[in-house]
Design brief:
- This protein is an alpha+beta fold and 526 residues long.
- It has 13 helices and 26 strands.
- The protein is 24% helix and 26% strand.
- A hairpin with an 8-residue loop joins strand 23 and strand 24.
- Helix 1 runs antiparallel to helix 12, helix 2 packs parallel to helix 6 and helix 2 packs across helix 11.
- The longest helix has 15 residues.
- It is globular and about 75 Å long.
- The protein starts with 49 loop residues before the first helix and ends with a strand.
Length: 526
């Protein structure tokens, strides 16, 4: 997913930490059919049917106090359950159905990888084909990486970009071509192909590469090559399907985003991608996702028709680069499961089975896809609450019931405890300095126009006795507050934003000459 904060996790849980809520104060509590953290009826390895999947989903909805969720389950290559639970909108009480459309957040990446795979099938692009052979003007800060980076590099986070960086471009108002040019100023964090670092920039570039090779804008290309062949009629760009504010989307059965605001769980505006569609800008329903994961579980075909070749699906599921499981990963991912990136997916092992998984998170939504190729098993889980661990809880329960070993421990208490631990860790408020210094100059001295090669032109202005930033052509507004001397805090809009420290600098005459943002220097325009 795109986010208003600079961070994002491969599981969807790291970057959107402020979405986690500790209480439901002021909210009529959702019913809890079960009172324990453990899974009711836990019996590893005894199998899963539709009734068990419903029971697990309803339990998780209550356990994690989520307004609504939708689940699609594929067993032995057949869709055995697709159903909605709870409500899609806490304000209206409208029910969640199998056709309710949710933002997908970073689960969108699986469609980007599938679109590239479809182009490879058609001989219009190669996994190892250098990007510059398709986009000759493309450049990166590291000239060697810019010469050789390819689709597989971009789709497995090994192009060298800094982790969780660049999502702000979704809000600055630049077009695709301008951002494609500006990315040459992104300073690498690692050597090319040396380490994995989760990057939405990489997926934006993969979308641009696919669009050029396929001869259509990326969203249209994904529709042509993936959505239409799968008859996914309720899947597309989230901003078009869902809409926001006074701009209604094209569909009415859509899930609203829910977050704790002032201690009360309520509907909040969605965070809709304007630019990084390939990284996190699609929306879909459980019914449509059921078609997608059925195709993947069946090796690329559905209804007797191939959508992707067997070779293409194998390429999607083949690990490319290893990564250490992070603090945001939930069991059964652990130090013993392994963790790798394949194009568009994370790969780990559970009881000798390869598991493909991709999660996503945005303001008020969590999503997760899982495929177990050896068993032709797959599940899609959609939930409409901020950073809830419900998707991980449901998928762990289904995996254990289906493929667990007799006597193995129920993972649910560990998942719930880790969820609470993350709540405490990620919601911690940065303490103010013990003895903060006031700014040396009046606020008006910091106002003016500033420019940076990567981020473009920003204006610092004074309004109602406070400072604000108006960033890029969209004049995206952020608040700037004194923090400690010449260091200010910059806070972008949205329920998931966290402040960024912005140090200002002065020249020899004492006049403010620039500031730093995430390691990038802005110089003041005379």
């Amino acid at each position: 997913m795109p986010s208003r904060t600079p961070a994002r996790s491969r599981s969807g849980l790291r970057a959107l930490a402020p979405l986690l809520g500790l209480t439901l104060a002021g909210v009529s509590p959702l019913p809890r059919a079960f009172g324990a953290d453990g899974l009711p009826g836990y019996a590893p390895g005894t199998g899963v049917d539709a009734a068990a999947a419903r029971r697990i989903s309803r339990w998780a909805l209550a356990e994690y106090a989520v307004p609504g969720a939708a689940v699609a389950l594929v067993q032995d290559g057949r869709l055995t359950l697709v159903e909605g639970f709870g409500v899609r909108d806490l304000a209206t009480g409208a029910p969640t159905t199998a056709d309710t459309v949710f933002q997908l957040a970073s689960v969108s990446k699986t469609f980007t990888a599938a679109t590239v795979a479809a182009l490879v099938d058609r001989k219009r692009l190669g996994w190892e084909q250098p990007m510059v052979s398709v986009l000759p003007d493309f450049r990166l800060h590291d000239a060697y990486a810019g010469t050789w980076v390819n689709a597989r590099d971009l789709l497995t986070h090994r192009a060298g970009f800094p982790a969780f960086f660049g999502d702000l471009f979704d809000h600055l108002g630049y077009g695709d071509a301008d951002v494609l040019r500006r990315i040459r100023y992104v300073k690498p964090a690692t050597s090319f192909r040396d380490r994995a670092a989760y990057s939405n920039i990489g997926f934006f570039l993969a979308g641009e590469l696919a669009a050029k090779a396929g001869g259509e804008p990326f969203p249209a290309l994904a529709r042509t090559l993936v959505f239409a062949p799968l008859a996914m009629s309720r899947t597309g760009v989230a901003s078009t399907l869902i809409g926001t504010g006074s701009t209604a989307g094209t569909l009415s059965d859509v899930s609203r985003s829910h977050a704790l605001v002032g201690g009360r769980l309520q509907v909040v505006p969605p965070n809709l991608s304007a630019l990084f569609i390939a990284a996190g800008g699609f929306a879909s329903s459980a019914h449509d996702l059921g078609r997608f994961i059925t195709m993947l579980a069946r090796g690329g075909e559905i209804d007797g028709r191939p959508v992707l070749s067997d070779e293409a699906v194998k390429a999607l599921f083949e690990p490319v680069i290893a990564e250490e499981p992070g603090f945001a990963e939930f069991p059964p991912i652990d130090a013993h499961s392994g963790f790798d990136y394949s194009p568009g997916w994370g790969v780990y092992h559970y009881n000798g089975l390869k598991v493909l998984e991709k999660g996503g998170a945005l303001d008020g939504v969590r999503t997760l896809l899982v495929v177990v190729p050896q068993k032709r098993f797959a599940v899609a889980i959609l939930a409409n609450r901020n950073l809830t661990a419900l998707p991980e809880a449901v998928r762990a329960a289904l995996l254990q019931q289906a493929f667990g070993r007799p006597g193995e421990a129920d993972l649910q208490p560990t998942i719930r405890a880790k969820s609470r631990q993350l709540e405490s860790l990620l919601l911690a408020v940065e303490p103010r300095p013990a003895h903060p210094n006031p700014p040396a100059l009046p606020l008006a001295a910091y106002t003016g126009a500033y420019v940076n090669d990567l981020f473009g032109s920003w204006t610092v202005a004074e309004r109602n006795g406070a400072l604000e930033v108006l960033a890029g052509p969209a004049r995206y507004r952020g608040t700037v507050t004194p923090w400690n001397g010449e260091t200010f805090h910059l806070l972008w809009p949205g329920v998931i934003s966290t402040p960024v420290e912005v140090p200002f600098h002065s020249d020899r005459s004492g006049r403010v000459s620039g500031f730093d943002y995430l390691g990038y220097g802005f110089r003041r325009v005379p």
